[in-house]
Every structure is written in C-alpha cells, then in structure tokens.
Amino acid sequence: MDMVSFAMDLLASNSPDEQLIGARVLRQFSISAPFSENTLQKIGIDISVVERLVEMLNWTYHKEEEIRLSSAETLSKLGGMKQNSLRIAAILGAMELILSLLQTNRSLIPAADEIGEKNLEFDHSYTFWTFNHFGPLILKNLAHNHDNFSAFMVFYQKLGFFTKE
Q1: Among residues 34, 31, 19, 25, which one has the least CA distance to residue 4?
Q2: Which of 5, 33, 134, 144 lies at a CB distance of 3.0 to 4.6 Å from 72, suitable for a disulfide?
Q3: Calpha distance 29→110 (Å, rounded)
Q4: What string of DSSP letters covers 21-75?
Q5: Are 8 and 25 spatial neighbours (Cβ–Cβ below 8 Å)?
Q6: Considering the entire predicted model, what is its pTM?
C-alpha cells in the first residue's frame, strides 16, 4: 500500500489521531511539487475521500483545527483540477462548508440552521485568518471551472444574492 492510499484509509478511521495523520499526509503530498499531481488525481478518484475532506471543514472542536486546516489546504489544491472541482461542487452542502471558513464570529451554541464554532482560542498558531485564506482560495479554484457556474448560481440564489427571473 502506498502512503497516499494509507492516508486516505486513515481519514475514515474512528481515531482522531489516525484522522490527523491521514489529513497531514494528504496535505503534505498534495502541496509537494513532485507528488502533487498524482496525489490529487488519486484523491479525486475516490469520492468518499473528497466527501470526507469537505465534511472535515465543519469540524470545529479545539482539537480538530489542524485536521480542518489540512483538509482546507488539500481541497484548495484539489479544486484547481477541473474534474475534481466538479466533484467538490457536486457534494451536497459543500459550498456552505467552504463558506464556513470565512466566518469569524460564530457563536458557541449554534442555531438550528447555523454551524457552531467552539471559540476563538487556539493551541496552535492557527487563527481565523488562516482559515479565511482557504475559503476564497477554494471558491476561486472552483469558479475557474465554467461547468460549476450553474452550481454557484443555484447556491447564490439560495443565499438571496440573485432572484429568479
């Protein structure tokens, strides 16, 4: 088994430590020039891994922030490839989770239709600005694919930016 396959398997684990290792390995291989293209292709083929990475954007517990950050960085690279950007955009709730990276003032107790945030204190050097960087980067990469245009229009209509005419 190669490292990328092993890391992809670790993402599905029930152990937070194994999930963290898997997210770290995928992030490192996806940003490393000699391995990036092959890694992103392998991740993009497995829709369950792409869905898991998107799901991890919603993880807001204090101990899960590095997993969330690694997932965001991997998705930012993954979204730059046309076929993978289609897969990301097709995941139900993906746009809302990507936009959740932009929110800096989420409360401790979420409303029924909101994603809750733990608090503003981090053990690591991560700040909301770090997460804020990846939200627009992922959206930019997804928007470069013209096939995603209709998905963006439907999403923005839901948010009330456009009205159907």
Answers
A1: 25
A2: 134
A3: 34
A4: HHHHHHHHHHHSHHHHHHHHHHHHH-HHHHHHHHHHTT--SGGGHHHHHHHHHHH
A5: no
A6: 0.72
pLDDT in tens, 34-87: 999 999 999 999 999 999 999 999 887 778 889 999 999 999 999 888 778 778
Which run of H or of E encompasses 84? helix 82-90
Structure-token match 């963006």, residue found: 152
- DSSP labels for 128-152? HHHHHHHHHHHHHHHHTSGGGHHHH
Query: What gap in Å lies between CA 82 and CA 13, rounded to an integer?
Result: 28
Task: Locate the domains of the chain by residue range.
Answer: 3-159
Residue 102 clears pLDDT 80, i.e. is over it: no
Superfamily of domain 3-159: Leucine-rich Repeat Variant (1.25.10.10)
